[in-house]
Design brief:
- It is a single chain.
- The protein is built from nine helices and 25 strands.
- By secondary structure, the protein is α+β, with helices and mostly antiparallel strands.
- It folds into two domains: 297 residues, Cathepsin D, subunit A, domain 1; 78 residues, Pdz3 Domain (Roll).
- The strands form four sheets. Strands 1-10-9-18-19-11 form a six-stranded antiparallel sheet, with no helix packed on it. It has a six-stranded mixed barrel with strand order 3-4-8-5-7-6.
- A hairpin with a 2-residue loop joins strand 24 and strand 25.
- The N and C termini lie far apart (43 Å).
Amino acid sequence: MARLFAAILVGLASISLLAPLDAGDKQEAKKSAPQVHQVPFRLTPIYHLIVRAKVNNKGPFNFIFDTGFNANLMTPSAAKQAGLGTAGTQRIERLELEGGAVVEKCLCNVNIPPQVSLVNRTKGEGCEVHGILGYDFMRHFRIRLDYATHKMTWTRDKADDKDDKDAEAIVIPFARSLTNPKHLMVETHVNGKGPYRFLFDTGAPGTVVGPQVGLRGPEVVLDTVQIGALKVEKSPAFVQKVPAFESMAGIIGFPLIARYVTTFDFPGQRLVLRPGTYTPPQVPKSIVDGKPGPGTPEPTGGQWGLKVEKDAGDVKPGIPVTALTPDGAAAQAGIKAGDRLLLVDDSWIESESDFRWASNRARPGIEVLVIVERDGKLLTLKAIPKAPA
């Protein structure tokens, strides 16, 4: 575990020293329609969120969604595939997330940070990770994250007043940055002491407290963690040295964040938290014991009644439908053999594993939008997966 966090902290320290990526800060983001996007995510065995994106219409690529990272990043091999340079700071003309959220003319740094190497060594969700999405992409959006649904809601407009008038909502302002506004910091009290400055970081698999908090480790259970009006009791954490930037005393990570449905309101510079239904596992013990968690549980979804298969040399978008059950959900939705399946419930379908992942998250009896290509035309269909026999 110490090695895992050391890599994360090295990545934080190194990225904080990069030249500021201000070229896109003066750009007024173009409005896209619709303004609300449902973005699927996957959870790796070491509890990183993975989202998929196309870069300059190439890909899709797998990115870590990391609110503790101040820039966007791609590995050299992925950057080359996207038509970018393989070192330094590169300009992306168009970056589109699965689900439709788009930013044009943004910057990314090209290198291989420790976080990406670690996730790839654990074979998270069976996919290679190609980079990190950080503040420079997220800053345009309000992002609602619910670990129980495997989706995020990305909204590109002004904050909705309902966000903070909900009786269950806890509104927490971002802490004023001391050096860099791209670090999402919150004022935090630990065991009644503070305030300290903590990074609120979806890219951290655990919560970390620095030595300045006055606790002895390496593992502790914090009696209380208070962030604004939010007070959490008996929260596991690690005691470990953290980077010195921003006078940071710790990191709020997965075990605490995942308990809540959290809106990251970057334009409004605030968090909005509500009680969630997801129960995070005991991350510290499982990872320290060398037994990474299972990642996103693989549910049993509804039955579709179709077969898909893609040849190794097939580079076209989507995957061909090769067979259907006559009375199955796919046939009843109007899908035909020979169609190319492109999208299922906001998820891009480029492989059999993509279809398996998306279809397993479609509940029996619940309508799902499907996009197929037939004879060069795109068709939007509605499928209702059936309950397993």
